[in-house]
Amino acid sequence: MTSKNVAQLLIDLGVARSHSRPRVSNDNPFSESQFKTLKYRNDFPERFDSIEHARTWCKDFFDYLRHEHRHSALGLHTPASVYFGTAADIQAKRARVMADAYAANPNRFSSPPQPPKLPTAAWINPPTPQPKIVST
User: Fold this and answer.
1) Under a CB-based contact definition with an 8 Å cutoff, are residues 87 and 74 in contact?
2) What are phi and psi of 41, to 5 degrees?
3) How does pLDDT run across 5-34, given as a tens digit for each residue?
4) Which of 9, 48, 50, 71 is the most exposed place for a label (fewest CB within 10 A)?
């Protein structure tokens, strides 16, 4: 689709376009990231049959993304495991399995393996640190 076709489709569907922050390319970086993730999926339909088809597909996709897909930025954990606090237990189990594998055959490794670290914070666009103003 081209921009004109998308714009016309929005008009045909009765969707009002809004630009809450003109000339800002990353108005909602979380939403932009989700759109890219959606469009790069092999099973993303070229066109949805109905609004219900779109809702069902998106619900299934986001359930998968939250509960099954392991994100590299989250130490190969799911967002749900990080959010609900089970990631630390999972990481400890992974560390034990890796330590056992290393103990059983250390020649297979160049150094003792470690699971990826858990993030202390997850950002798409981290906030810019503001200078501290000291009053006298």
Assistant:
1) yes
2) -75, 140
3) 777 888 888 887 766 665 565 566 677 777
4) 50
Report helix, strand or coil for 104. helix
User: What type of residue is 126?
Assistant: P
Is the separation of the CB atoms in 116 and 76 below 8 Å? yes
Q: Please count the helices (runs of H) and the strands (runs of E) in the chain.
A: 5, 0
Closest of 114, 127, 109 to residue 75, by C-alpha? 114
- The rounded distance, in Å, linking the Cα atoms of 21 and 18 is 9
pTM over 0.85: no
**Is 77 within 8 Å of 87 (Cβ atoms)?**
yes
Q: How many of the other CB atoms lie within 10 Å of CB of 8? A: 12
| Residue 48 burial (CB count, 10 A) | 14
Total Cβ atoms within 10 A of residue 20: 7
Q: In this structure, are residues 53 and 40 in contact, taking their beta carbons and an 8 Å threshold?
A: no
Token representation of residue 122: 């997850």
